[in-house]
Amino acid sequence: MTTSNSDITRILFNPRRMAVIGASANLGKWGHIVPTNIIRGNYTGELFLVNPGGGEIHGTPIYRGLEEIGRTVDLAMLTIPAQQVERVFGDCSRAGIKVVIAISGGFSESSSEGKAMEERMVKAAASYGIRIVGPNTMGIYSAPWSLSALMPPVAPQPGHIAFAAQSGNLGTQLLGWGSHRGIGFSRFVCVGNESDLDFADYLEYFAEDDETKVILLYVEGFKRPRRVLELAERISLDKPIVIYKAGTTRAGHEAAASHSAAMAGSSEIYGGMIRQGGMIRAETTEEMLDFCDALVKTPLPRSRSVGILSWGGGWGVIAADLCERAGFDVSPLPDYAKKSLGDVLPTYWSKGNPVDMVGIVDLDAHTRCLELLSSCPEYDSIISLGTINAATAFGLAQRESEKLDKKLIDVQRQYMEMKASQFGRRVYELMRDLEKPILAVGMPEREKDLQEGSERPNSKICTYTNPERAVRVAEMLVERAEYLRSRQEARS
Amino acid sequence: MTTSNSDITRILFNPRRMAVIGASANLGKWGHIVPTNIIRGNYTGELFLVNPGGGEIHGTPIYRGLEEIGRTVDLAMLTIPAQQVERVFGDCSRAGIKVVIAISGGFSESSSEGKAMEERMVKAAASYGIRIVGPNTMGIYSAPWSLSALMPPVAPQPGHIAFAAQSGNLGTQLLGWGSHRGIGFSRFVCVGNESDLDFADYLEYFAEDDETKVILLYVEGFKRPRRVLELAERISLDKPIVIYKAGTTRAGHEAAASHSAAMAGSSEIYGGMIRQGGMIRAETTEEMLDFCDALVKTPLPRSRSVGILSWGGGWGVIAADLCERAGFDVSPLPDYAKKSLGDVLPTYWSKGNPVDMVGIVDLDAHTRCLELLSSCPEYDSIISLGTINAATAFGLAQRESEKLDKKLIDVQRQYMEMKASQFGRRVYELMRDLEKPILAVGMPEREKDLQEGSERPNSKICTYTNPERAVRVAEMLVERAEYLRSRQEARS
């Protein structure tokens, strides 16, 4: 009895019971580290550890064989040497396991012997109707099950981005970056060598997955590019697919061949495929998260008009340049807005777009300016520079009061943080109520001074450390909106 | 008696005695904040505060007039309203003051009345032989004197970058960013409206200044573009000049006019001028510091060959792509290097350039790989990804040992930090001994996990949070080397 691909990926990301085969009581072994990550990640399913040697890991007993468990298991993760993999499928099958994650390396990515071994492994699994993730994978993450079946000790945050990556190192790093920026993931899989399950399978699952609002792909080469294209054309009308294509040069191509055994394919072919599939290309590693985050959190703009709010003149000039170069319409401030903003700002303010708040230190005035500017129907995207890091900027007050008592300094700091939080919350509300993207650039001295984390308001808004990133995101959003409109027109 | 421009700028950045006119005992007034910043910055010259009302600031008495000081003063900073500025020059002249910094806004940047007032002010100063920085400036910084005569409470770090900025907000933010990245400045001036002293004057001084190795300009428009070009052509053969040109679009141009009263000039004209002057154009705000930092810390490469070291496969593929796209020669690993690296790495390593260290956790092996790769005469630039943030990556060990005692966890952490420090120090030594740039990409989860600050080894090396930034810097360095070679050839 074979199980359909979509059932397999559903089981993979929703395992009620999973086993780690090759679990080890020895600190420092992958057989120890992986179960530790699963346990510490608070997996809500049942975890069974298996090793002929027995023992225990963090209080969880190690069974000597799958048969000892006496329960049907959905998923197994293998932390055993490559040579031993093909021998475990019989036991797996008897335990009811439908899919295994093979983290072992040393298969087709490393040598021709490895390639032959990989082929034997896939055949062996197929004879039992078992499907394979990897080999040469760093594992999976699944938010609804709090399942961190991963090699590195990252602690992903739950969210709405589903991510399939052809590099575990890059993939898990993005999970880590996300967790510190308030950017969460619904599902993650490191596709590894794709000896069996491949990008197309994962893409199909993400398309149907209710937890997933945006799909992210880090790709060196597709095994079934035509199938991916077919799927993307359909899926991208509903859920945006952000893609980073690596291995587009000769040097990158060769590096990819030894890394993921991927045939990278020419840049032109992939460029055409990405366009035709309606996918969104991330041009830099940073854009992968920036784009996905914005697509989860912000509405799409109705037009290319943009309003810019700036705390200081230079940053406003820079943001205006960037917006115009990105094809935005930085249209002049309407008279009624000049009047209303003039009631809030000192007489010597800029009276234009960008609205230069000329360094005023009243944070309530910043909020009022944002409300006034973003309420203008003339502007369909808003970029706001410099308020989010108010706590840093106004650190001023703290230095002033060196001689004042500690309590007063704390009160001041709390006040600044409260004001910054209020501003963040207002950004979120305005974005929701006005249905237009508002992108906030904090520009703190240190990234850590930018408010981060799930408890902070910016986990609901998009913040950036420089205007370049904000404008690139705004550009991506407007292109996405235009793509969807053009497809709707084509169909009507 | 008139003093030459070069004497004036020398006095400006090396004031033995300075006065703040308009000093105020009132917390929150600029007349209080500016002296606070000077005092807290530990100015090594003598500071005199002046206000008819008297009082004191942090124990420094406020004189009721300049004449009460009874000493010759070099420099005055004015924290008084615009309308009062033209009246103080007589007193200043009698006190021996040669140059004043006018922070007041409300001059030509804001209205035609302001413009007229600015003209009157310059005339009044000139009649006493006094020169002006600003108005509408945020002040200056001078490292040898620990002088932070600035409005915002930034604490710049001493170093070798001289920076003239047409935006105080942007300028001081860069000082702050630098201080948290181990990037120091020799001098800083916010040029303001350039009613008198202008970019050309500052540039001339920076050229002669022994503290300065690299010059940075943030420019909206030059008052004397021809003079700047003449100077740049000469200076850039000796000291690199990094320039960010803002106001290159219609929207940016208009914003600049209301911000710094600058005539921004067309992008083409400025592009030609930057090239002809041998200046290095920063295309993003981030590149301003990235470029200057590298030009201070790294040697220039002899060719476009690059060797890439990577901890994980995906990042290696990405770096190889970026290098090839930037015009680098990512040439194959020579056989002898394959042999020597093979002695350090597991059998399944990539055997190519990029050298993929396939995730090995032995940090001494990383150092050894770096030594071997950078010693290859085949490679004139080295990009090293993923080791600098070892303390984060190996945070693994910490999570493992939750049950172990606190002391052991601390020992582990210290060990990781020591290894990362050793790696950083070795990067520095290799760069110095081999005379080739080695750029390190840390990619920590949070920027703060990247080692920062003056006590850390990376204050001597260049570190980046993503490969894009490192490759852009490498590209800039090779272009700088090629420019210098082409100019040498032209002269020989």
TrEMBL record, chains A, B:
The keyword Signal does not apply. The lineage of its organism: Bacteria, Bacillati, Actinomycetota, Candidatus Geothermincolia, Candidatus Geothermincolales. It comes from the Bacteria. This is CoA-binding domain-containing protein. Residues 12-107 form the CoA-binding domain. GO terms for molecular function: ATP binding; ligase activity. It comes from Candidatus Solincola sediminis. The keyword Transcription regulation does not apply. Gene3D superfamilies: NAD(P)-binding Rossmann-like Domain (3.40.50.720), Succinyl-CoA synthetase domains (3.40.50.261). It holds the Pfam family Succ_CoA_lig. Keywords: ATP-binding, Ligase, Nucleotide-binding. InterPro entries: Acyl-CoA_Synth/Transferase, CoA-bd, NAD(P)-bd_dom_sf, Succ_CoA_lig_flav_dom, Succinyl-CoA_synth-like.
